[in-house]
Amino acid sequence: MPGRGMVKFEYRPDVDGLRAIAVLAVVLYHLGFDTFSGGFVGVDVFFVISGYLITGIIKRKLAEKEFSLADFFLRRVRRLLPALIFTVACSFVAAFYLLPPPEMKDFGGSAIAALFSFSNIYFWSGSGYFDTAALSKPLLHAWSLSVEEQFYLFWPLFLIAICKFRHAAGGLILAAIGVVSLALSQYVVNESPSAAFFWMPFRVYEFSIGALLAWYGLGKSAPGMRQEFLLFTGLGLIGYSIFTFTEDTLFPGVSALIPCLGAALVIHGGGAKWLGSLIRNRAMVFLGLISYSFYLAHWPIIVFFQYYNVDAASTVQTLGLLAASLTAGYLMYRFVETPFRSARFRSKGLGAMAAAYSAVLALLFFPAAYAWSSNGWTWRLPEELRKSVEVMVEERSNYWRDAFANGGSFSGNGRKVYVIGNSYAVDIYNSLNALDGIDARIDRSTGHECFAMRIPISADISFDCEDNFNQVLNTQGARDADYIVFTEKWRIELGSDRYLRELQTTIEAVREINPQAKLVLVGPRQSFRDKPVYQRILDFGRLHNVDKYLSNFYAHPMPAVEQFDQDLNNFSASVGAEYISTIDLFCNEGLCRVTTPGDFMIYWDAGHWTNSGSEFFAERLVESGYADIFRD
Asked: Which residues contact 536 (CB under 8 A, 6 or more apart)?
């Protein structure tokens, strides 16, 4: 019999119902249903459930002197790895046919990270969970599995130590760990939101909330109105998070307490007679049972469909994706998860299971490593595209690092040119650096969320554009430069009237700190919508007439870009600044180049240039005479 303060872990359909809520929230959020803007909190609900179940199981087995680390890890392996391995393997097949080399290279890295439980670190080192680039990462969702698996590595050892040396104070220790983790998470989410989101130590407090329920035997309260109230409140907190949180919510940190405490209340009050039927009915229990496989299947299906379909999914297609994810989840649960948890496989020893899994992992590891090391299997491409893609993939990873590594003081060798702007300014810096007699510098971006270098593009932007711009002005490079070049992702959709008024103030601020410098504005370039340019080129399959083909995907109508270019040219003349028209150099008769004369790609995404693109722009500056601006 379980002792006092111990939960007897019989099967609980209400916990499966809670799993169903969590997985539905995540999937509907990923499918783009605006109502479920905070559906990402479903992962946090899963963390609470895991903390509750794992702590309860370990504590009970320790009390009964039946706990074995080998048995614990073997159970976790059987529970998690088969479906994960199957997901990675199926994704590999789809990736081979659908992913272009840059994404195939990233997929290879993410597959290795998923198989060896460091997906959270892998994706943290790249970009954030909410980035638009997430739609190109079929295994992004594996980050949460890695967090759980890392938690499983240390938590049993921690509980063994508590039960052996500090059992009486165990609950207080668990609570203290949770408080420390929460405090760290709240601090880090303000300093580095991506680290707070992905790193396991900043999520431990979510597991510890469930762990405290198990430690104090609060798994299920006695039936009655108290139980109804607990369940109602818990569901309300989860629902509030799902329907009101957005990508702009500071998360996790304190915000994550709302869905996590809601999950704890649902676990505690899950036996409620009346409200409990909402989560204990057959449909919810079924979804809960297949929730792990459903979760694994849904995101690759969504991502690969977007690659295949190109355009945003229609309502009918979105419902089809939901149905496909459910079907795939059920099939994977029925034919992958369930067999590996059967008595037949439970009878296999640790050595036999380790050997079998090692062999399967090796079969996936080596092609994944090859995809990573070979720049995404460029041999799949036609010969005319291969060399261009190989160069672009190789240089993309160092794009930002190489530019900003050369900030700081001028070398004194050539005319001192200081470039100010957002990420698009890196392209111009690269071009100017390729010109003889120019000593170019760029220290930092003015921010992609800002226009006219210092104004937020919308009222809900938290980035301090003005302060960042002032820091740019306070650099030695801005004060010492002979020429100051302005460029950015000119936001044509904002219109030229307000833009130019704000730009006037920006120029006045620059002239205050360096009145002797000659000012140069580099105008807008045509950019592209929906997919990176190189993906469009690969879709087209050849370079002949590719400029014409790509004109179907311009981000802005060509007449609007040309008008903005002319307005910016006139403005430059009115404020005594020189002007370089990118449209004049790269476009002709309404078509803009996307490859160089040597058949190398100019763009590596929807708007940024490759090194080849920047070098070609430098050549065009010389050919057109624009380079003479820097020789006066």
From this structure: 528, 549, 550, 553
- DSSP-derived letter for residue 167 is G
Looking at the DSSP bridge assignments, the partners of residue 528 are 554
Count Cβ atoms within 10 A of the Cβ of residue 130 and give its class: 0-12 exposed, 13-18 middle, 19 or more buried.
middle
Strand residues in 479-546 grouped as ranges (E): 483-486, 518-522
pLDDT of residue 129: 53
119-158 pLDDT, tens digit each? 999 999 876 554 546 667 999 999 999 999 999 999 999 9
SS3 528: strand
The set of residues, in sequence order, having a beta carbon less than 8 Å from that of 112 and lying 6+ positions away, is 365, 368, 369, 372
pLDDT range class, residue 271, cuts 50, 70, 90: confident
Does the predicted TM-score (pTM) go above 0.85? no
Torsion, CA 544, CA 547, CA 550, CA 555, rounded to 10: 170
Tell me, rounded to whole angstroms, the distance of Cα 84 from its chain centroid: 20
Cα-based torsion angle of the residue sequence 509, 515, 517, 521 in order, rounded to the nearest 10 degrees: 40
Exposure string of 466-505, with b = 16+ CB inside 10 Å and e = fewer, is: eebbeebbebebbeebbbbbbbbbbebebebeebbeebee
Sign of CA dihedral 401, 407, 411, 412: positive
CA–CA separation, 79 vs 97, rounded Å? 30
Q: What angle do CA 181, 182, 184 make, to 5 degrees?
A: 65
DSSP per-residue codes, 607-620: SPBPHHHHHHHHHH
Element (H, E) at 418: strand 415-420
What would you measure as the largest C-alpha separation in the chain, in angstroms? 91
When mean pLDDT is compared across 208-222, 317-331, 334-348, 480-494, the lowest value belongs to 334-348
